[in-house]
Amino acid sequence: MVRKKLMALFTAALLLSSAALTGCGGASSGGAASSAGGGEAASAAADKAGSDTAGAASEAGADTAGAASEAAGAAETTGSGEAKHLNASIYWFGDSLDPAHDWDGWTTCRCGITENLVTINDKYELVPQLSDTWEQKDNKTWVMHIRDGVTFHNGKAVDGAAVKASFDRVIAENPDRAVDAKIDSITADGQTVTFVTTEPYGAFLAQITEPLWSVIDVDAGTDIASAPVGTGPFAVTDFEVNTVVELEKYADYWNGASAIDTVTVTLIEDDSTRGLALQSGEQDLIQRCTSTDLPTFQNDSNYTVLDTQGARIRILLINHKNEFLSDVNVRKAFASAIDYETLVSLLGDIVTIAGAPYPASAPYGYDSLDKQTFDLAAAKDLLKKAGYEDGDGNGYVEKDGKELKLEVAYSNADYTTTLEAVQSMVKEAGINLSLSMMDSVSEIESAGNFDLILTNWQALSTGDPQWFLDNLYRSDASNNCTGYASKDIDKMCNDLTLAFDQKDRQNIVIEAQKILLADCASVWLTGEKNFVLMNSKVKNVTGYPIDYYFLDNGITID
Amino acid sequence: MVKYIIRRVLIVIPIMLILSFFTFSLTFIASSDPVTLQLESMGVKADAETINAKREELGLNDPFLVQYGRWLSGVLQGDFGNSYKSGVPVMQEFTKRLPNTLALTASALLLTILIAVPLGILSAVFQDSPLDYLLRLISFLGVSMPSFWVGTLLMLLFGVKLKMLPIQGSGDFKHLILPALTLAIWMTCLYIRRVRGSMLEEMNKDYLVGGMAKGIPRRRVILRQVLPNSLLSVITMFGMSIGALLGGATVIETIFEWKGVGKMAVDAISIRDYPVIQAYVLWMALIYVMVNLLVDLSYLILDPRIRLEGKNI
C-alpha cells in the first residue's frame, strides 16, 4: 500500500516537475520570445513604432528635404498611419554590435545601423557615403569632406572630430585588423578629416569601406556592444546576443528615412530553417537558402529571389612545390580536365563558372581573359607533353613508374559534392585524385604539406582586388602557402600600391590575371552567388555583390 | 543512507577532475587552432600575425599545464572563464541557456510519459492483437525516422501549411511545442517498445497466474502488481534519457534555433572554444551522476528488496 502511494507520488512529482520546468523555461525566456519575431511581438513593436515615429518622420521630411530627394518614397507610408514592420533573417551574427570588435561590424552594416565614409555600389565602384567629396593631396594624404546634415541616431551632427574619434577607437580596440588600412595619423578640422597613411597605398579608400570602419558616436554614452549609435537608416532598440536585433527607422536619416517603421532581424543559422521561416510567413526577407530549396522559391510567384554574382570564389590551391604539380603542364592538364559547366549544373544555381581569379561582374576584363576551360583532349596532350602515360593500363598515368596520384584536402563538408565530381572528371584524364576532409586545413597550409586544398576567398574584399593578390599570390605573403612565386606578380602588387587611378588599377589587375592564368597558379573553380529571398510584400530590395550589405533605406513592405 | 548519498555526491569531484583533464587534453592535442577555426567559420582569411596576436591574447600560446592550471584555479574560485568566441563569461551564457534546455527536456519527457506508458501497457496487454501490431509498427517507424527529418516535417505541417506554430526561436510556450514534439515522438516510440517488453516480461511470471487463480481479476493484477514491477526497469532507462536530453538535444536545438546548452556545446566544439567545452563536460558529468543517484534512490523507495539491502549500506 505504501509502495503504491510512493509510486503514485513519484509519478505525480515527475509530472509536476516537468510541468513546472516547462512553465519556468517559457517564462525565463519570455524576454527572448517577445523580441524573437513572433507575430504578436512584431505587431506590438510595429504599433509602438507607428505612434512614436510618425511625427518624427514628418519632421524629418522637412528637415532633410535636400537629402531625401536621393531616396524616393521615403517617409510616405508612415504618413498613412499604418506602421510598417519587416521581419528579416540573416545567417550570422557577431557576438556584439560593436563594429570595432572582430567582424561584428558586418552585422551592423547588414542591419543598416552603421555606415562608412565611402562605400561600394553593386558594380564594385567606390561611391560617397558619409563623405561626399575627397581629395588626394599627395600619395599618402587624403582629405575627406564629411557630408553636411548627417546626424547620428541621437541627433548629434557628424563632423570631422566625430569621425576621427570613431577611427581612433577602432585603431585602439582592434589594432590587428586596423593595421590593414595603414593609417599613420588622422586630423579633424570642422567638416573635414585628413588621413595620412604610413606609405603610399592605392587601396586606402577601399580599405575604409570595411564595416570595421563604421562611423559611430563614441561619446553617446550607450553600451556600444549592444546599442551603437550610428548614422544608418535604422537605429537599434534592442539586441539579444546571437538571437535578434530590434530596429526602428531613423527618421532624420540623411539619405531619406526608410518607409519601414520597425525591423526585427533574427539570427537563423540553419539554411533550411531560414527557408521554411520565409515560407511560413515568419520572415519576410532572408539572406541565403539551401540549393535544394532554391527552385521552390524561384518557381513560386509568391516569392522573389534576387541573385547577385558574389565576390567569393572557390579555389583549388595548388602546391607548386609538389613533385607532380611543380610542372606547369600538369597543373594546366588538371585545370583543363575539369568540366566547369557540368560542375555548375551539378551544384545548382548557387554558383557560377569561374575559370579566372576575379568574378565576371567585376571590371577586370573577365571576357578578354584566356580562362581555364574544359578540354579533355588538351589535358591528355599536356600530360603526355609532361611525360605521363598510362603504361600499365589501369586508367591512371604515370611517369618513371610513378603514378600521378594527388590528394585534395578540404574542411567544409559542402565541398564534398564538388570534389567528388572533380575526382571523376580528372580521372578521365588519368589523374588519380583522392579526397581528404579535415577539421581545418590551416595546419597543412602553414606546413606546406599538401597537394591541393579546396578553399574559398573573398577575391574582392572591400571591393578592391589588391588584398587578394597581396595575400595569396605575392611571393612573400603570409597566406601564400602554395609556394607560388612570380616576380611579375610581386611587381604588380607593388604597382597596385602606388596606383591611385581606378582605371590604372584595373589594367594592372587584368595583366596580373593573365600571368596567374599562364602559370596556372590555382584552379579557380566556381564563383559564389549571393541570394536574397523575399515574399511578395517586400519591394525595392537591392542585391549587393558583397553580402554584408543587406538592409537599406530603399526597401519597402506592403 | 545519508552516508551513502554523501559518498555518492563526493565521488562527483574526482570524476569531474579526471574528466576535465581528459577533455582538456583531447582538445589540446587536436590539431585545429581555435582562432583559425573561428575565423574560417566566418569565411575570413586572416594573416599569421593576426592569428598569433589573438592566440597570445587568449593565452593559447602557453604550455598545456599552464593553461589547464589557470582554468582549474579559476573554476575553484567559481570562474569558468570567458568564451574565446564571445568574450562573455561561460557561466553567464550557460545559465542563460539552461532554462531552455530544462524546459525542452521536461516537456519532451512529459509527453513521452503521457503517451508511451499507456500505449506500451495496451500493446502488452493486447499482445499479438491488431492494436499491438499497429503500435509496434508505429513505434518501429518512429524510432527509425531521424529527428531532424521529423522536425522538418513538423515545421512544414504546423508552420508552413497550417501556420499554427512558429517554426523557430527560443521563445514562449508556442516556440516550445514543435521541438518538444519532435523529441517526444522518437522517445515515445522507443518507450512504447520498452514498456511493452518490460510488461510482457512481468506478465510471464507466475504471480500473475497465482493472483488470477486466487480469483483476482486479471486487470487488477496487471494494474496493481505487474505495472509497478515493470516500471522499475523503465525508470532506469528514463534516468539515462533525462541525462542525454539535459545534455542537449543538439540536432533539435539547431534546426529549431532553440538556444539550449546542446547547441552551445556543438558550436563551441566546432571552433574549439575550450572554456565552453569544459563547462559543458562538467555539466554532463554532474547531471549523469546526479540522475543516476536519483534513480538509485528511487529504487530504495520503490523496491522493497533493495530497501532491505539498503539497510546494510
Task: Walk me through what this model shows.
The complex is a heterodimer of chains A (558) and B (313). Chain A has 558 residues and is α+β, with helices and mostly antiparallel strands. Chain A has helices spanning 2-28, 30-35, 39-63, 65-68, 105-110, 160-173, 175-178, 204-207, 271-280, 294-298, 328-336, 340-347, 376-385, 416-429, 442-447, 466-473, 487-498, 502-519, and strands spanning 85-90, 118-120, 126-128, 131-138, 141-146, 183-189, 192-197, 234-240, 244-249, 262-267, 285-287, 303-318, 351-353, 398-399, 402-403, 405-410, 432-437, 452-458, 522-535, 538-539, 556-557. Chain A is globular and about 80 Å long. The termini of chain A are far apart. Chain B is 78% helix and 0% strand. Chain B has helices at 2-10, 12-29, 34-41, 48-58, 64-76, 90-125, 130-144, 147-161, 173-203, 206-213, 218-246, 250-255, 261-270, 274-302, 304-310. The longest helix of chain B has 36 residues, at 90-125. At the A-B interface, helix 1, helix 2, helix 9, helix 15 and strand 18 of A face helix 3, helix 4, helix 6, helix 8 and helix 9 of B.
- The number of domains of chain B: 2
Biggest interface reads: A-B, 61 and 61 residues
Rg of chain A over CA atoms, rounded to whole Å, is: 27 Å
Number of strands of chain A: 21
Amount of beta strand of chain A: 15-25%
Cα shape of chain B? globular
Summed over residues and divided by their number, the pLDDT of chain A gives a mean of: 85
Q: Alpha-carbon distance between the termini of chain B?
A: 7 Å
* Poorly predicted tracts of residues of chain B: none
In the CATH hierarchy, the third-tier topology of the largest domain in chain B is known as: MetI-like fold
